[in-house]
Amino acid sequence: MPGKEMTTNPVVVTIENPSVEIDFSNSNTNSSFFSDKQKASSPKQFTWVLVIKAYRALYYLALGMKATFLSAKKRILLSEVSQEEEEEARTRGKLYRFIRAFLAISMVALVIEIVAHYKEWNLGLIHNPWEIMGLVQWSYMAWLSFRVDYAAPTLIMLSNLCIVLFMVQSIDRVVQCIGCFWIKCKGLKPELVGGEEEDASDVEDGSRFPMVLVQIPMCNEGEVYDQSIGAACELDWPKDRFLVQVLDDSDDENIQNLIRNEVWSWKQKGVNIIYRHRFLRTGYKAGNLKSAMACDYVKDYEFVTIFDADFQPSPDFLKRTVPHFKGNPELGLVQARWIFVNKDENLLTRLQNINLCFHFEVEQQVNGMYLNFFGFNGTAGVWRIKALEDSGGWLERTTVEDMDIAVRAHLNGWKFIFLNDVRALCELPESYMAYKKQQHRWHSGPMQLFRLCLPDILHSKMSMGKKFNLIFLFFLLRKLVLPFYSFTLFCVILPLTMFIPEAELPLWVVCYVPIFMSFLNILPSPKSFPFLIPYLLFENTMSVTKFNAMVSGLFQLGSSYEWVVTKKTGRASESDLVALGERESMNTGQEKLTRRLSESGLETLRKEKVEAVPVAKKQNMIYRKELALAFLLLTAAGRSLLSAHGMHFYFLLFQGLAFLAVGLDLIGEQIN
């Protein structure tokens, strides 16, 4: 029996224990059993998951790179030198030759640096010049000596200057943002003199409506003329108290006939509207406006409002702007804000929207609230005609006639206000060529004007504070310093420091401060936060165009006098405008825009335009200046990789790719 007990007990224990552990144990022991297995298998599973995700990421990245490469290859093979490209070639000049020379030297330097890196040449280990073997090594050692003694000190001095300018401009922008934040917190806005109730009763009395002249200058605006004319004719103002002037500079007879017919159709409906056409387009927009203001009947009008051909003011535009002039005889200009019907059309329009939202929300609003001065935007504004006449009227001496008249009016003591809640719909340029031409004019014109206005500013009777604001902040810091340091610091000095490490830029200059400033710029358009990094890279990419324009305007080069009408696409259809207007009204608490139909019939006009106006063949282009800078920055990125610079490498890499995308015209409107 004892033997049997000894033989059976182990069997019972052996059989029962597993059964107890597996089938009848509590939840704690069961979970611990499976957790051990899971712990054993989870590292392998996790590794496989990572491998699969990495494979998918690489697969989609390869597909994207392949598509980009094929697009770039097709763009290069099919590119032709059009008239616009020939004009671009004439304006490249010395800057383009400088970039090409810089690129060639950098590529040679990179090859030498690669050879030196792998052969481990070190100047500190060579004590006898006879130890140097070969011409390449001797050239490299001579370059190291020259770099330490001469190149590095000069580059450090230049980089310090640019860093100082960068920080001063950044401080100016931070101060403006603080001013905008204060306006938002306190709910500050321009108030009507005499109160809103008195003004509202005044508006209801038709006999007290002032006479308003509405001007629509245009030139070959075949895509959008009907929208601006229709919007101006439906302004909520007594028909006998305003006149619409359609100022047509078109040289296309088909477009002239279409505009003339549109004007005639509105005239048949009882609208006080006239059509004016100039045979000679002298003075461009300024000459057009000057010619219109010379008409005898203008003396009967007290105010003039200007709308470019793609602008669609809401019907209550005059009722919300003109009353601010009442009881304020020193007020010369009321400027409204722009909103864009095609801001989500492509990446280029999204990035433009960020810039212009900051311009209106921060720059214009802050300067208007605290200084009563800002640059007139050329459209969507109401002028007191007496202020225009007192300031000398429209002059044809620059390509920024709007800024010119604003500065002269400011010198004569007139005040401006900006209404951020009054908005006019308009259109952004969708192609990079159109945007580039626009930016060239916007950045060369102010430098032309600065040369012409500086003596008048110095001899004016304004206070020293206003002179300081006009000269150092308005012109020098925001119009000259900004494009200068953007191009010099990030497109010239930063690549150079990769080959001259003694002058390496600190990380906060390359990364932290630019990202913070881009963050501030994007605050007025919070939906654009996903485009923070593309915006930063694109702004640096545009610095070459802005720098070139600034130099041509400052030294009065031939390209500074070019005026190219920004091309419109006519995407602002009636339904698009109403839908966007209603969305903006809901966001701002305004009343919805009333729906309106073009009096001549939109469908009929679309057909007429297709039949009558020949459509010019469009194509994407290649921009050699941007491509040269792309290869320069990528070359510098290769040198940075040898030195393991980290963040400098990534910045140069992505900035070079941004230049490459712009140079191949892969941003903006894509034409099949």
TrEMBL record:
Question: Which Pfam family, giving just one, matches this sequence?
Answer: Glyco_trans_2_3
Q: What is this protein called?
A: Glycosyltransferase 2-like domain-containing protein
List the top taxonomic levels of the source.
Answer: Eukaryota, Viridiplantae, Streptophyta, Embryophyta, Tracheophyta
A molecular function annotated in GO for this UniProt entry is:
glycosyltransferase activity
Family assignment from sequence similarity = Belongs to the glycosyltransferase 2 family. Plant cellulose synthase-like C subfamily.
* Biological process annotations from GO: cell wall organization; plant organ development; pollen tube development
Decide whether keyword Membrane is in the record: yes
What Gene3D superfamilies would the database entry show? Spore Coat Polysaccharide Biosynthesis Protein SpsA, Chain A (3.90.550.10)
Gene Ontology CC terms = Golgi membrane
Swiss-Prot/TrEMBL keywords = Cell wall biogenesis/degradation, Glycosyltransferase, Golgi apparatus, Membrane, Transferase, Transmembrane, Transmembrane helix
Q: How does it sit in the membrane?
A: Multi-pass membrane protein
Statement: the UniProt record of this protein carries the keyword Protease = no
- Localization annotation: Golgi apparatus membrane
Q: Membrane-spanning regions, if any?
A: 98-118, 150-168, 470-499, 505-523, 627-642
Any idea where the Glycosyltransferase 2-like domain is?
Answer: 304-500
